[in-house]
Amino acid sequence: MNSFMILQQRGFLMELSQRYSEGGMFFMILITVCLLLSFLFLTLGFINIKKEPKVSMKMLKITSDISLLGLVIGFLGSIIGLITAFDTIESINNIPSASFSKGLKVSFLTTLLGSITFIFPRIGIIILRFFQKSE
Predict the structure, then answer these.
(1) C-alpha span between 100 and 72 (Å, rounded)
(2) CB-based contacts of 100, cutoff 8 Å, min separation 6
(3) For the chain, how many helices (H) and strands (E)?
(4) Would you tell me how many other CB atoms lie within 10 Å of the CB of residue 107?
(5) Is the pLDDT of residue 35 over 60?
(6) Rounded to whole angstroms, how far apart are CA atoms 118 and 16?
(7) At the N or C end, where does the chain have fewer CB atoms within 10 A?
(8) What residues does each domain of the chain span?
């Protein structure tokens, strides 16, 4: 009986991809690009920490800027999702909960991914700064 329940449940990647598309592909792709770029520049900062400390510092600053950009894009997607939800309320007297929920979902999913894009690279920045100070 338990194996039957496991087979009926959706996989983590399927659930993640559905949430990704529900959040609005445009904003989610922009935020994901910021996340990937911030990890790329953070990795370059770690690679150059001993060979070229100035390059490492530059990568740290770029990572900081890109992660902040991801957060701001997430909040922009949140504002647009809320505006969509409120437009639905304004245009229809009897509000269908599905269309109202869709606007709120876009709002929260872009904010969530934007926050992740900010928090994870920020942890890496703290670690990189610690290693730069010890050099």
Answers:
(1) 23
(2) 85, 88, 89
(3) 5, 0
(4) 23
(5) yes
(6) 19
(7) N
(8) 23-134
For 19-36, b where at least 16 C-beta lie within 10 A, e where not — what string?
eeeebbeebbebbeebbe
Average pLDDT over residues 43-65: 94
> What whole-number distance in Å separates Cα of residue 119 and Cα of residue 135?
25
Bigger pLDDT: 108 vs 103: 108
Cα separation, 83 vs 12, whole angstroms: 30
Per residue, the 3-state secondary structure of 22-64, as one string, reads HCCHHHHHHHHHHHHHHHHHHHHHHHCCCCCHHHHHHHHHHHH
Phi, psi of 117 (to 5 degrees): -65, -30
Rounded to whole angstroms, how far apart are CA atoms 57 and 131?
A: 11
The distance from CA 106 to its chain's CA centroid, rounded to whole angstroms, is: 13
